[in-house]
Amino acid sequence: MGIEMIKPGLLTTVQDFGRTGYQKLGISPSGALDRKAMILANLLVANSAGEAVLEITMMGPELRFTADNFVAVTGGDLSPVLNGAPMPRYAAIPVKDGDVLSFGPAKSGCRAYLAFAGGLKLPVVMGSKSTNLKCGFGGYGGRKLQAGDAIAFSSPKKELPFFPLRTLEAPSFGGETILRVILGPQEDAFTEEGVRTFFEETYQVTPRFDRMGCALDGPVVECRDKADIISDGIPAGAVQIPSSGKPIIMLADRQTTGGYTKIGTVASVDLSLLAQCRPGDSVRFQRISVGEAQKLLRKETKKLSKLNRYLNE
Amino acid sequence: MQEPRILMAGDSALTVEFGNEISEEINGKVLALGRALRQSGLKGITETIPTYRSLLICYDPCVIRYSSLKRKVSRLANHLGSAASGAGRIVEIPVCYGGEFGEDLPDVAAHAGMAEDDVVRIHSSKNYLIYMLGFLPGFAYLGGMDPRIATPRLKTPRVKIPAGSVAIGGEQTGIYPIASPGGWRLIGSTPVKPYDPNREDPILYRAGDRIRFVPVPREEYLRIHSLSEKGEYQCVVREGGSSDGD
Protein backbone atom coordinates (compact mmCIF):
# COMPACT_ATOMS: atom_id res chain seq x y z
CA MET A 1 0.00 0.00 0.00
CA GLY A 2 1.00 3.63 0.21
CA ILE A 3 -0.86 6.62 1.58
CA GLU A 4 -4.35 7.30 2.91
CA MET A 5 -5.70 10.81 3.15
CA ILE A 6 -7.12 11.71 6.58
CA LYS A 7 -7.65 15.40 5.75
CA PRO A 8 -7.18 16.63 2.18
CA GLY A 9 -5.86 20.13 2.86
CA LEU A 10 -6.87 23.13 0.74
CA LEU A 11 -5.76 21.87 -2.68
CA THR A 12 -3.62 18.75 -2.90
CA THR A 13 -3.12 17.28 -6.37
CA VAL A 14 -0.88 14.75 -8.09
CA GLN A 15 1.57 16.45 -10.50
CA ASP A 16 4.65 15.62 -12.55
CA PHE A 17 6.22 17.39 -15.55
CA GLY A 18 2.79 17.52 -17.23
CA ARG A 19 1.72 16.62 -20.76
CA THR A 20 3.61 17.42 -23.91
CA GLY A 21 2.09 17.43 -27.38
CA TYR A 22 -1.60 17.89 -26.57
CA GLN A 23 -1.86 21.68 -26.50
CA LYS A 24 -2.67 21.68 -30.23
CA LEU A 25 -5.85 19.83 -29.22
CA GLY A 26 -6.77 22.39 -26.58
CA ILE A 27 -5.51 20.29 -23.66
CA SER A 28 -3.47 22.19 -21.04
CA PRO A 29 -0.09 20.78 -20.10
CA SER A 30 -0.67 20.79 -16.30
CA GLY A 31 2.30 19.71 -14.15
CA ALA A 32 3.96 21.05 -10.99
CA LEU A 33 3.96 24.85 -10.68
CA ASP A 34 7.31 24.85 -8.84
CA ARG A 35 9.16 22.41 -11.08
CA LYS A 36 12.46 22.92 -9.31
CA ALA A 37 11.02 21.95 -5.92
CA MET A 38 9.36 18.91 -7.49
CA ILE A 39 12.63 17.79 -9.10
CA LEU A 40 14.58 18.23 -5.85
CA ALA A 41 11.99 16.23 -3.89
CA ASN A 42 12.28 13.41 -6.40
CA LEU A 43 16.07 13.41 -6.53
CA LEU A 44 16.27 13.30 -2.73
CA VAL A 45 14.39 9.99 -2.70
CA ALA A 46 16.30 8.57 -5.70
CA ASN A 47 13.41 9.00 -8.17
CA SER A 48 13.73 10.26 -11.71
CA ALA A 49 13.22 14.04 -11.82
CA GLY A 50 9.66 13.87 -13.14
CA GLU A 51 8.08 11.17 -10.96
CA ALA A 52 4.57 12.07 -9.79
CA VAL A 53 4.47 13.94 -6.47
CA LEU A 54 1.79 15.64 -4.38
CA GLU A 55 1.54 19.39 -4.88
CA ILE A 56 0.29 20.85 -1.61
CA THR A 57 -1.17 24.35 -1.48
CA MET A 58 -1.02 26.63 1.60
CA MET A 59 -2.98 24.44 4.03
CA GLY A 60 -1.43 21.01 3.91
CA PRO A 61 -3.20 17.67 4.27
CA GLU A 62 -3.00 15.04 6.98
CA LEU A 63 -2.18 11.57 5.70
CA ARG A 64 -1.32 8.13 7.02
CA PHE A 65 1.34 5.88 5.53
CA THR A 66 0.19 2.33 5.03
CA ALA A 67 3.59 0.95 4.04
CA ASP A 68 7.25 1.65 4.86
CA ASN A 69 9.07 3.95 2.43
CA PHE A 70 11.15 7.14 2.11
CA VAL A 71 9.66 10.55 1.43
CA ALA A 72 10.90 14.12 0.96
CA VAL A 73 9.13 17.46 1.33
CA THR A 74 10.39 20.50 -0.58
CA GLY A 75 9.06 23.89 -1.70
CA GLY A 76 7.32 26.32 0.63
CA ASP A 77 7.58 25.80 4.39
CA LEU A 78 4.12 24.55 5.32
CA SER A 79 5.41 23.14 8.65
CA PRO A 80 5.44 19.38 7.99
CA VAL A 81 4.97 17.28 11.13
CA LEU A 82 5.67 13.53 11.31
CA ASN A 83 3.98 11.73 14.20
CA GLY A 84 3.70 14.99 16.11
CA ALA A 85 7.32 16.12 15.67
CA PRO A 86 8.56 18.70 13.14
CA MET A 87 9.86 16.93 10.03
CA PRO A 88 12.96 18.27 8.25
CA ARG A 89 12.31 19.67 4.76
CA TYR A 90 14.66 19.09 1.82
CA ALA A 91 15.76 15.72 3.20
CA ALA A 92 14.94 12.07 2.59
CA ILE A 93 13.02 10.81 5.60
CA PRO A 94 12.13 7.17 6.34
CA VAL A 95 8.46 6.55 7.16
CA LYS A 96 6.81 3.45 8.62
CA ASP A 97 3.43 1.85 8.13
CA GLY A 98 1.06 3.75 10.46
CA ASP A 99 3.06 7.00 10.58
CA VAL A 100 1.04 10.19 10.19
CA LEU A 101 2.27 13.21 8.24
CA SER A 102 0.46 16.49 8.76
CA PHE A 103 1.13 20.14 8.07
CA GLY A 104 0.86 23.20 10.26
CA PRO A 105 0.90 26.92 9.51
CA ALA A 106 2.33 28.12 6.20
CA LYS A 107 5.55 29.79 7.37
CA SER A 108 6.95 30.76 4.00
CA GLY A 109 6.14 30.09 0.37
CA CYS A 110 2.84 28.73 -0.88
CA ARG A 111 3.33 25.26 -2.36
CA ALA A 112 5.08 22.21 -0.93
CA TYR A 113 5.97 19.05 -2.83
CA LEU A 114 5.87 15.57 -1.32
CA ALA A 115 7.77 12.86 -3.18
CA PHE A 116 7.69 9.12 -2.45
CA ALA A 117 10.59 6.82 -3.26
CA GLY A 118 9.59 4.57 -6.14
CA GLY A 119 6.64 6.81 -7.05
CA LEU A 120 2.86 6.47 -6.88
CA LYS A 121 0.81 3.79 -8.58
CA LEU A 122 -1.51 5.84 -10.79
CA PRO A 123 -2.54 5.55 -14.43
CA VAL A 124 -0.61 7.48 -17.06
CA VAL A 125 -3.04 9.55 -19.15
CA MET A 126 -1.63 11.13 -22.32
CA GLY A 127 1.89 10.50 -21.15
CA SER A 128 1.54 11.99 -17.66
CA LYS A 129 0.17 11.36 -14.17
CA SER A 130 -0.63 15.05 -13.64
CA THR A 131 -4.13 16.03 -12.55
CA ASN A 132 -6.00 18.15 -15.09
CA LEU A 133 -8.58 19.78 -12.80
CA LYS A 134 -10.55 21.57 -15.50
CA CYS A 135 -11.09 18.46 -17.63
CA GLY A 136 -11.22 16.03 -14.73
CA PHE A 137 -8.66 13.45 -15.77
CA GLY A 138 -5.20 12.33 -14.69
CA GLY A 139 -3.80 12.14 -11.17
CA TYR A 140 -6.26 10.59 -8.72
CA GLY A 141 -9.64 10.42 -10.45
CA GLY A 142 -9.00 13.71 -12.24
CA ARG A 143 -9.61 15.74 -9.09
CA LYS A 144 -8.00 17.16 -5.97
CA LEU A 145 -7.49 14.66 -3.17
CA GLN A 146 -10.24 14.13 -0.61
CA ALA A 147 -10.39 12.47 2.81
CA GLY A 148 -10.40 8.69 2.44
CA ASP A 149 -8.50 8.60 -0.87
CA ALA A 150 -5.82 5.91 -0.93
CA ILE A 151 -2.90 5.75 -3.37
CA ALA A 152 -0.48 2.82 -3.47
CA PHE A 153 3.28 3.18 -3.80
CA SER A 154 4.67 1.82 -7.08
CA SER A 155 7.85 0.30 -5.66
CA PRO A 156 8.57 1.50 -2.12
CA LYS A 157 12.19 1.31 -0.95
CA LYS A 158 13.58 -0.44 2.13
CA GLU A 159 16.75 1.63 1.88
CA LEU A 160 18.22 4.45 -0.19
CA PRO A 161 21.82 4.54 -1.42
CA PHE A 162 24.05 7.26 0.11
CA PHE A 163 21.32 7.97 2.66
CA PRO A 164 23.39 10.43 4.79
CA LEU A 165 23.93 12.64 1.72
CA ARG A 166 20.24 13.06 1.07
CA THR A 167 19.72 16.47 2.57
CA LEU A 168 19.86 19.89 0.95
CA GLU A 169 19.77 23.44 2.16
CA ALA A 170 16.19 24.72 2.10
CA PRO A 171 15.73 27.99 0.17
CA SER A 172 13.84 30.81 1.80
CA PHE A 173 10.85 32.47 0.20
CA GLY A 174 9.14 35.76 0.83
CA GLY A 175 9.82 39.45 0.45
CA GLU A 176 9.65 41.11 -2.92
CA THR A 177 9.97 38.69 -5.83
CA ILE A 178 11.79 39.75 -8.99
CA LEU A 179 10.50 38.03 -12.11
CA ARG A 180 12.65 38.36 -15.20
CA VAL A 181 10.60 38.87 -18.37
CA ILE A 182 11.38 38.50 -22.06
CA LEU A 183 9.47 41.14 -24.01
CA GLY A 184 6.95 39.91 -26.61
CA PRO A 185 5.10 38.57 -28.52
CA GLN A 186 2.75 41.62 -28.54
CA GLU A 187 4.93 44.33 -26.98
CA ASP A 188 3.91 46.57 -29.94
CA ALA A 189 0.40 46.73 -28.53
CA PHE A 190 1.60 48.86 -25.59
CA THR A 191 2.74 52.46 -25.39
CA GLU A 192 6.31 53.23 -24.34
CA GLU A 193 4.81 54.54 -21.13
CA GLY A 194 2.96 51.24 -20.67
CA VAL A 195 6.13 49.18 -21.05
CA ARG A 196 7.93 51.52 -18.64
CA THR A 197 5.14 51.16 -16.06
CA PHE A 198 5.32 47.40 -16.37
CA PHE A 199 9.04 47.24 -15.66
CA GLU A 200 9.30 50.03 -13.10
CA GLU A 201 6.27 49.66 -10.88
CA THR A 202 5.52 47.12 -8.16
CA TYR A 203 2.60 44.70 -8.47
CA GLN A 204 0.74 42.71 -5.84
CA VAL A 205 -0.33 39.09 -6.11
CA THR A 206 -4.14 38.95 -5.76
CA PRO A 207 -6.22 36.08 -4.37
CA ARG A 208 -7.00 35.18 -8.00
CA PHE A 209 -3.96 32.93 -8.06
CA ASP A 210 -4.59 29.32 -8.98
CA ARG A 211 -3.01 26.65 -11.18
CA MET A 212 -4.30 28.41 -14.31
CA GLY A 213 -2.80 31.79 -13.66
CA CYS A 214 -1.79 34.54 -11.28
CA ALA A 215 -3.66 37.84 -11.48
CA LEU A 216 -1.74 40.89 -10.25
CA ASP A 217 -2.89 44.27 -9.04
CA GLY A 218 -1.03 47.52 -9.52
CA PRO A 219 -0.60 50.41 -11.96
CA VAL A 220 -2.37 50.03 -15.31
CA VAL A 221 -0.14 49.03 -18.23
CA GLU A 222 -1.21 51.40 -20.99
CA CYS A 223 -1.90 49.91 -24.40
CA ARG A 224 -2.07 51.66 -27.78
CA ASP A 225 -5.66 50.66 -28.48
CA LYS A 226 -8.09 48.59 -26.52
CA ALA A 227 -8.47 45.90 -29.17
CA ASP A 228 -7.77 42.28 -28.25
CA ILE A 229 -5.85 40.15 -30.71
CA ILE A 230 -6.98 37.26 -32.88
CA SER A 231 -6.53 34.28 -30.52
CA ASP A 232 -3.08 32.72 -30.58
CA GLY A 233 -1.09 30.16 -28.57
CA ILE A 234 -0.13 30.93 -24.96
CA PRO A 235 3.27 29.78 -23.67
CA ALA A 236 3.95 29.04 -19.98
CA GLY A 237 4.66 32.26 -18.11
CA ALA A 238 2.97 34.51 -20.69
CA VAL A 239 2.00 37.86 -19.16
CA GLN A 240 -1.41 38.81 -20.51
CA ILE A 241 -2.72 42.33 -20.19
CA PRO A 242 -6.53 42.31 -20.46
CA SER A 243 -8.50 45.54 -20.88
CA SER A 244 -8.18 46.26 -17.15
CA GLY A 245 -4.46 46.87 -17.75
CA LYS A 246 -3.52 44.56 -14.85
CA PRO A 247 -1.16 41.67 -15.68
CA ILE A 248 -2.15 38.00 -15.49
CA ILE A 249 0.66 35.43 -15.62
CA MET A 250 -0.39 32.19 -17.30
CA LEU A 251 0.58 28.93 -15.57
CA ALA A 252 0.45 25.15 -16.04
CA ASP A 253 -3.36 24.76 -16.25
CA ARG A 254 -3.76 27.78 -18.57
CA GLN A 255 -6.02 27.71 -21.58
CA THR A 256 -3.91 26.86 -24.62
CA THR A 257 -5.07 29.79 -26.75
CA GLY A 258 -6.46 33.22 -26.03
CA GLY A 259 -7.13 36.68 -27.35
CA TYR A 260 -5.54 38.96 -24.74
CA THR A 261 -2.35 40.79 -25.69
CA LYS A 262 0.81 39.41 -24.12
CA ILE A 263 3.43 41.97 -23.18
CA GLY A 264 6.08 39.41 -22.28
CA THR A 265 6.90 35.97 -20.92
CA VAL A 266 8.42 35.20 -17.51
CA ALA A 267 11.80 33.42 -17.74
CA SER A 268 11.33 29.68 -17.13
CA VAL A 269 13.72 29.64 -14.16
CA ASP A 270 11.63 32.29 -12.37
CA LEU A 271 8.29 30.44 -12.61
CA SER A 272 9.29 28.43 -9.53
CA LEU A 273 9.67 31.69 -7.58
CA LEU A 274 6.23 32.84 -8.68
CA ALA A 275 4.74 29.50 -7.59
CA GLN A 276 5.83 30.32 -4.02
CA CYS A 277 4.25 33.79 -3.91
CA ARG A 278 1.12 34.40 -1.87
CA PRO A 279 -1.73 36.83 -2.28
CA GLY A 280 -0.49 40.21 -1.05
CA ASP A 281 3.16 39.58 -1.97
CA SER A 282 4.99 42.16 -4.08
CA VAL A 283 6.29 41.32 -7.53
CA ARG A 284 8.54 43.38 -9.80
CA PHE A 285 9.40 42.67 -13.41
CA GLN A 286 12.90 42.96 -14.79
CA ARG A 287 13.72 42.85 -18.46
CA ILE A 288 15.97 40.04 -19.69
CA SER A 289 17.09 38.99 -23.15
CA VAL A 290 16.05 35.62 -24.54
CA GLY A 291 19.71 34.59 -24.73
CA GLU A 292 20.29 35.39 -21.08
CA ALA A 293 17.10 33.57 -19.99
CA GLN A 294 18.13 30.50 -21.96
CA LYS A 295 21.59 30.61 -20.42
CA LEU A 296 20.02 30.65 -16.92
CA LEU A 297 17.77 27.73 -17.79
CA ARG A 298 20.66 25.68 -19.19
CA LYS A 299 22.70 26.46 -16.08
CA GLU A 300 19.91 25.34 -13.77
CA THR A 301 19.29 22.17 -15.79
CA LYS A 302 22.99 21.34 -15.63
CA LYS A 303 23.07 21.94 -11.87
CA LEU A 304 20.11 19.63 -11.30
CA SER A 305 21.56 16.84 -13.45
CA LYS A 306 24.85 17.18 -11.57
CA LEU A 307 22.97 16.75 -8.30
CA ASN A 308 21.20 13.74 -9.77
CA ARG A 309 24.51 12.12 -10.71
CA TYR A 310 25.93 12.91 -7.27
CA LEU A 311 23.01 11.32 -5.40
CA ASN A 312 21.75 8.67 -7.71
CA GLU A 313 24.53 7.22 -9.86
CA MET B 1 0.53 38.24 -48.22
CA GLN B 2 2.96 39.80 -45.74
CA GLU B 3 6.28 38.21 -44.79
CA PRO B 4 5.98 35.87 -41.83
CA ARG B 5 6.99 37.58 -38.56
CA ILE B 6 8.87 35.72 -35.86
CA LEU B 7 7.84 36.93 -32.41
CA MET B 8 9.45 36.25 -29.08
CA ALA B 9 7.35 34.06 -26.77
CA GLY B 10 9.72 33.53 -23.86
CA ASP B 11 12.81 31.36 -23.55
CA SER B 12 11.10 28.13 -24.63
CA ALA B 13 8.72 29.17 -27.41
CA LEU B 14 8.42 31.46 -30.40
CA THR B 15 5.47 32.56 -32.51
CA VAL B 16 5.45 32.67 -36.30
CA GLU B 17 2.73 35.06 -37.46
CA PHE B 18 1.55 34.99 -41.07
CA GLY B 19 -0.91 37.86 -41.03
CA ASN B 20 -3.51 39.67 -38.99
CA GLU B 21 -6.80 38.34 -40.28
CA ILE B 22 -8.85 35.17 -40.31
CA SER B 23 -8.56 33.59 -43.73
CA GLU B 24 -8.20 30.08 -45.09
CA GLU B 25 -5.07 31.10 -46.98
CA ILE B 26 -3.24 32.40 -43.90
CA ASN B 27 -4.40 29.47 -41.79
CA GLY B 28 -3.18 27.14 -44.54
CA LYS B 29 0.31 28.62 -44.18
CA VAL B 30 0.21 28.07 -40.40
CA LEU B 31 -0.62 24.40 -40.86
CA ALA B 32 1.89 24.03 -43.69
CA LEU B 33 4.67 25.33 -41.43
CA GLY B 34 3.64 22.80 -38.79
CA ARG B 35 3.95 20.01 -41.36
CA ALA B 36 7.26 21.35 -42.71
CA LEU B 37 8.65 21.41 -39.17
CA ARG B 38 7.61 17.81 -38.54
CA GLN B 39 9.17 16.72 -41.83
CA SER B 40 12.37 18.65 -41.16
CA GLY B 41 13.13 16.44 -38.16
CA LEU B 42 14.52 19.51 -36.39
CA LYS B 43 15.66 18.46 -32.90
CA GLY B 44 14.48 20.20 -29.75
CA ILE B 45 10.94 21.08 -30.80
CA THR B 46 8.59 19.81 -28.11
CA GLU B 47 5.22 20.79 -29.59
CA THR B 48 3.45 23.24 -31.85
CA ILE B 49 0.10 25.01 -31.39
CA PRO B 50 -1.53 26.17 -34.63
CA THR B 51 -4.01 29.05 -34.34
CA TYR B 52 -5.90 31.23 -36.85
CA ARG B 53 -2.90 33.10 -38.17
CA SER B 54 0.15 31.96 -36.22
CA LEU B 55 2.05 28.92 -35.05
CA LEU B 56 3.42 28.75 -31.50
CA ILE B 57 6.53 26.58 -31.55
CA CYS B 58 7.58 25.24 -28.15
CA TYR B 59 11.16 24.05 -27.85
CA ASP B 60 13.83 22.98 -25.42
CA PRO B 61 16.56 25.64 -25.23
CA CYS B 62 18.93 23.01 -23.83
CA VAL B 63 18.77 21.37 -27.27
CA ILE B 64 18.39 24.32 -29.65
CA ARG B 65 18.95 28.02 -29.05
CA TYR B 66 16.68 30.84 -30.07
CA SER B 67 18.99 32.31 -32.72
CA SER B 68 19.54 28.97 -34.42
CA LEU B 69 15.86 27.98 -34.32
CA LYS B 70 14.78 31.40 -35.56
CA ARG B 71 17.06 31.10 -38.59
CA LYS B 72 15.80 27.62 -39.47
CA VAL B 73 12.13 28.41 -38.88
CA SER B 74 12.37 31.59 -40.87
CA ARG B 75 13.84 29.71 -43.84
CA LEU B 76 11.01 27.14 -43.68
CA ALA B 77 8.32 29.81 -43.25
CA ASN B 78 9.50 31.74 -46.29
CA HIS B 79 9.57 28.70 -48.54
CA LEU B 80 6.21 27.09 -47.94
CA GLY B 81 4.45 25.85 -51.03
CA SER B 82 1.11 27.38 -51.88
CA ALA B 83 -1.12 26.87 -48.86
CA ALA B 84 -2.31 23.34 -49.26
CA SER B 85 -6.02 23.84 -48.76
CA GLY B 86 -7.93 20.61 -48.99
CA ALA B 87 -5.03 18.72 -47.40
CA GLY B 88 -7.05 17.93 -44.29
CA ARG B 89 -9.59 15.19 -43.81
CA ILE B 90 -13.36 15.46 -43.64
CA VAL B 91 -14.73 14.11 -40.36
CA GLU B 92 -18.44 13.33 -40.37
CA ILE B 93 -20.18 14.19 -37.12
CA PRO B 94 -23.69 12.72 -36.78
CA VAL B 95 -26.14 15.19 -35.23
CA CYS B 96 -29.70 14.82 -34.04
CA TYR B 97 -31.18 18.27 -34.57
CA GLY B 98 -33.97 19.99 -32.66
CA GLY B 99 -36.43 18.74 -30.07
CA GLU B 100 -34.86 17.66 -26.78
CA PHE B 101 -31.45 17.56 -28.52
CA GLY B 102 -31.45 21.17 -29.66
CA GLU B 103 -33.93 23.21 -27.74
CA ASP B 104 -32.98 26.55 -29.32
CA LEU B 105 -33.57 25.38 -32.91
CA PRO B 106 -37.03 27.04 -32.98
CA ASP B 107 -35.45 30.37 -31.91
CA VAL B 108 -32.74 30.09 -34.56
CA ALA B 109 -35.35 29.30 -37.21
CA ALA B 110 -37.52 32.21 -36.07
CA HIS B 111 -34.55 34.59 -36.13
CA ALA B 112 -33.60 33.43 -39.63
CA GLY B 113 -37.22 33.60 -40.76
CA MET B 114 -37.22 30.06 -42.11
CA ALA B 115 -38.44 26.58 -41.19
CA GLU B 116 -36.43 24.45 -38.75
CA ASP B 117 -35.76 21.94 -41.54
CA ASP B 118 -34.17 24.68 -43.63
CA VAL B 119 -31.83 25.65 -40.79
CA VAL B 120 -30.81 21.98 -40.50
CA ARG B 121 -30.34 21.68 -44.25
CA ILE B 122 -28.15 24.79 -44.40
CA HIS B 123 -26.15 23.86 -41.30
CA SER B 124 -25.43 20.34 -42.55
CA SER B 125 -24.60 21.21 -46.15
CA LYS B 126 -21.06 22.53 -45.64
CA ASN B 127 -17.64 21.19 -44.77
CA TYR B 128 -16.45 23.52 -42.02
CA LEU B 129 -12.71 24.17 -41.83
CA ILE B 130 -11.20 23.70 -38.36
CA TYR B 131 -8.99 26.77 -38.03
CA MET B 132 -7.74 25.79 -34.60
CA LEU B 133 -8.52 23.91 -31.40
CA GLY B 134 -8.51 25.72 -28.07
CA PHE B 135 -10.59 27.15 -25.19
CA LEU B 136 -11.68 23.64 -24.14
CA PRO B 137 -10.08 20.28 -25.00
CA GLY B 138 -11.14 19.57 -28.57
CA PHE B 139 -13.13 22.78 -29.02
CA ALA B 140 -12.90 23.47 -32.75
CA TYR B 141 -12.99 27.02 -34.09
CA LEU B 142 -14.91 26.45 -37.32
CA GLY B 143 -15.06 28.77 -40.26
CA GLY B 144 -17.61 29.36 -42.93
CA MET B 145 -21.06 29.14 -41.42
CA ASP B 146 -23.81 30.44 -43.68
CA PRO B 147 -24.65 33.94 -42.35
CA ARG B 148 -28.37 33.28 -42.97
CA ILE B 149 -28.50 31.09 -39.84
CA ALA B 150 -26.36 33.39 -37.65
CA THR B 151 -28.13 34.04 -34.33
CA PRO B 152 -27.06 36.24 -31.43
CA ARG B 153 -25.88 34.51 -28.26
CA LEU B 154 -28.30 34.10 -25.36
CA LYS B 155 -28.56 37.19 -23.15
CA THR B 156 -28.01 35.02 -20.08
CA PRO B 157 -25.59 32.16 -20.72
CA ARG B 158 -26.58 28.67 -19.58
CA VAL B 159 -24.76 27.46 -16.49
CA LYS B 160 -24.15 24.09 -18.08
CA ILE B 161 -24.26 23.06 -21.70
CA PRO B 162 -24.04 19.27 -22.00
CA ALA B 163 -21.09 17.64 -23.76
CA GLY B 164 -21.84 16.93 -27.42
CA SER B 165 -24.10 19.95 -27.91
CA VAL B 166 -23.95 21.50 -31.38
CA ALA B 167 -24.59 25.20 -31.22
CA ILE B 168 -24.62 28.55 -32.99
CA GLY B 169 -23.15 31.68 -31.40
CA GLY B 170 -23.34 34.76 -33.58
CA GLU B 171 -21.77 33.84 -36.92
CA GLN B 172 -19.95 30.84 -35.50
CA THR B 173 -20.93 27.24 -35.00
CA GLY B 174 -19.29 24.55 -32.92
CA ILE B 175 -19.51 21.47 -30.74
CA TYR B 176 -19.10 21.50 -26.94
CA PRO B 177 -16.63 18.68 -26.25
CA ILE B 178 -17.18 18.78 -22.49
CA ALA B 179 -19.96 20.19 -20.37
CA SER B 180 -19.36 23.90 -19.97
CA PRO B 181 -21.17 27.17 -19.29
CA GLY B 182 -22.01 29.02 -22.48
CA GLY B 183 -24.30 31.38 -24.31
CA TRP B 184 -24.50 29.72 -27.71
CA ARG B 185 -27.87 28.53 -29.09
CA LEU B 186 -28.25 24.76 -28.94
CA ILE B 187 -29.50 23.35 -32.22
CA GLY B 188 -28.61 19.68 -31.86
CA SER B 189 -26.46 17.10 -30.21
CA THR B 190 -23.95 14.54 -31.41
CA PRO B 191 -23.89 11.02 -29.99
CA VAL B 192 -20.13 10.74 -30.55
CA LYS B 193 -17.52 11.99 -28.13
CA PRO B 194 -15.29 14.57 -29.79
CA TYR B 195 -13.13 14.35 -26.65
CA ASP B 196 -12.35 11.28 -24.57
CA PRO B 197 -9.19 11.43 -22.43
CA ASN B 198 -9.01 7.65 -22.21
CA ARG B 199 -9.13 7.07 -25.94
CA GLU B 200 -5.88 6.40 -27.82
CA ASP B 201 -6.63 9.51 -29.85
CA PRO B 202 -8.33 11.79 -27.30
CA ILE B 203 -9.67 14.24 -29.91
CA LEU B 204 -11.46 13.12 -33.09
CA TYR B 205 -10.07 15.84 -35.36
CA ARG B 206 -7.19 18.23 -35.93
CA ALA B 207 -6.77 21.80 -37.04
CA GLY B 208 -6.90 21.72 -40.85
CA ASP B 209 -9.53 18.97 -40.97
CA ARG B 210 -13.09 19.81 -41.96
CA ILE B 211 -16.23 18.89 -40.09
CA ARG B 212 -19.38 17.78 -41.86
CA PHE B 213 -22.52 17.61 -39.75
CA VAL B 214 -24.73 14.71 -40.82
CA PRO B 215 -28.37 14.81 -39.61
CA VAL B 216 -29.54 11.58 -38.00
CA PRO B 217 -32.94 10.65 -36.55
CA ARG B 218 -33.47 9.94 -32.87
CA GLU B 219 -33.19 6.13 -33.16
CA GLU B 220 -29.89 6.43 -35.02
CA TYR B 221 -28.65 8.90 -32.40
CA LEU B 222 -29.43 6.38 -29.66
CA ARG B 223 -27.81 3.50 -31.58
CA ILE B 224 -24.59 5.47 -32.20
CA HIS B 225 -24.62 6.76 -28.63
CA SER B 226 -24.64 3.26 -27.15
CA LEU B 227 -21.89 2.10 -29.54
CA SER B 228 -19.93 5.22 -28.71
CA GLU B 229 -20.20 4.56 -24.97
CA LYS B 230 -18.61 1.13 -25.55
CA GLY B 231 -15.91 2.67 -27.73
CA GLU B 232 -17.22 0.80 -30.75
CA TYR B 233 -18.28 3.65 -33.01
CA GLN B 234 -15.95 5.09 -35.63
CA CYS B 235 -16.84 8.37 -37.30
CA VAL B 236 -16.74 8.36 -41.09
CA VAL B 237 -13.53 10.09 -42.16
CA ARG B 238 -12.82 11.02 -45.76
CA GLU B 239 -9.56 12.29 -47.19
CA GLY B 240 -9.30 15.76 -48.71
CA GLY B 241 -12.05 18.26 -49.24
CA SER B 242 -13.08 21.85 -49.63
CA SER B 243 -15.68 24.00 -47.96
CA ASP B 244 -18.26 23.50 -50.72
CA GLY B 245 -20.79 20.73 -50.53
CA ASP B 246 -20.12 17.31 -51.95
From TrEMBL, chain A:
<dbReference type="InterPro" id="IPR052708">
    <property type="entry name" value="PxpC"/>
</dbReference>
<keyword id="KW-0067">ATP-binding</keyword>
<keyword id="KW-0808">Transferase</keyword>
<feature type="domain" description="Carboxyltransferase">
    <location>
        <begin position="24"/>
        <end position="304"/>
    </location>
</feature>
<dbReference type="Pfam" id="PF02626">
    <property type="entry name" value="CT_A_B"/>
</dbReference>
<dbReference type="GO" id="GO:0005524">
    <property type="term" value="F:ATP binding"/>
</dbReference>
<dbReference type="InterPro" id="IPR003778">
    <property type="entry name" value="CT_A_B"/>
</dbReference>
<keyword id="KW-0378">Hydrolase</keyword>
<dbReference type="GO" id="GO:0016787">
    <property type="term" value="F:hydrolase activity"/>
</dbReference>
<dbReference type="InterPro" id="IPR029000">
    <property type="entry name" value="Cyclophilin-like_dom_sf"/>
</dbReference>
<keyword id="KW-0547">Nucleotide-binding</keyword>
<protein>
    <submittedName>
        <fullName>Biotin-dependent carboxyltransferase family protein</fullName>
    </submittedName>
</protein>
<dbReference type="GO" id="GO:0016740">
    <property type="term" value="F:transferase activity"/>
</dbReference>
From TrEMBL, chain B:
<dbReference type="InterPro" id="IPR010016">
    <property type="entry name" value="PxpB"/>
</dbReference>
<feature type="domain" description="Carboxyltransferase">
    <location>
        <begin position="4"/>
        <end position="205"/>
    </location>
</feature>
<dbReference type="InterPro" id="IPR003833">
    <property type="entry name" value="CT_C_D"/>
</dbReference>
<protein>
    <submittedName>
        <fullName>Kinase A inhibitor</fullName>
    </submittedName>
</protein>
<keyword id="KW-0547">Nucleotide-binding</keyword>
<keyword id="KW-0067">ATP-binding</keyword>
<dbReference type="GO" id="GO:0005524">
    <property type="term" value="F:ATP binding"/>
</dbReference>
<dbReference type="GO" id="GO:0016787">
    <property type="term" value="F:hydrolase activity"/>
</dbReference>
<keyword id="KW-0378">Hydrolase</keyword>
<dbReference type="InterPro" id="IPR029000">
    <property type="entry name" value="Cyclophilin-like_dom_sf"/>
</dbReference>
<dbReference type="Pfam" id="PF02682">
    <property type="entry name" value="CT_C_D"/>
</dbReference>
